[in-house]
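Q: Given only this backbone (142 positions), what sequence would you predict?
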C-alpha cells in the first residue's frame, strides 16, 4: 500500500468549531539556508513554490492546541479575508488541506503531532450542514 506523506483531510474535520486567522501571512523561514544577518524563505519540496504560513486559532473547545500554523505554497502571499465589523479576526477555511503526522519531542514527553498544508485560504462560509462526528465502535453485547 502506498500512502502519501501528506494525507488529504477536510477543513471541517480539522477545524469543526471554525478557524480564525490570528496573525498576518508570513514567509516560512528556511533555517538551514538562513544566517543571522539574512533570512531565506523556504520552498515547497514538490512544487518549488515559496512557503507562507498563517497562524490560526482553532475554535473547537476540545482542541489540545489552540493555535496552529497552516502552510501554503504560492508564488505570491495568500490574501486573508477581512474580519467582519466588530470581530477581531477573520474566519477562514482552507482548500486542499493535508495533514502530516510527526513526533513532537520538544516537551517533557514525545507526542503525536500534526503539520498542516493547504493550497489556498478563503473566507469561511456559514455552516449549513452538520459537522461529521468521529466513527464509534459498536458496543459488544455479552
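A: Predicted residues:
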Amino acid at each position: 500500500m502506498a500512502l502519501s506523506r501528506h494525507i488529504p483531510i477536510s477543513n471541517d474535520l480539522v477545524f469543526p468549531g471554525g478557524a480564525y486567522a490570528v496573525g498576518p501571512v508570513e514567509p516560512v523561514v528556511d533555517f538551514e539556508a538562513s544566517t543571522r544577518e539574512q533570512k531565506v524563505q523556504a520552498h515547497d519540496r514538490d512544487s518549488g513554490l515559496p512557503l507562507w504560513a498563517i497562524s490560526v486559532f482553532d475554535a473547537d473547545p476540545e482542541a489540545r492546541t489552540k493555535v496552529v500554523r497552516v502552510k501554503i505554497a504560492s508564488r505570491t502571499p495568500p490574501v486573508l479575508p477581512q474580519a467582519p465589523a466588530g470581530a477581531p479576526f477573520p474566519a477562514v477555511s482552507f482548500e486542499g488541506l493535508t495533514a502530516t503526522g510527526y513526533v513532537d519531542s520538544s516537551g517533557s514527553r514525545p507526542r503525536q503531532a500534526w503539520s498542516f498544508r493547504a493550497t489556498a485560504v478563503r473566507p469561511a462560509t456559514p455552516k449549513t450542514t452538520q459537522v461529521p462526528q468521529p466513527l464509534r465502535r459498536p458496543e459488544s453485547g455479552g
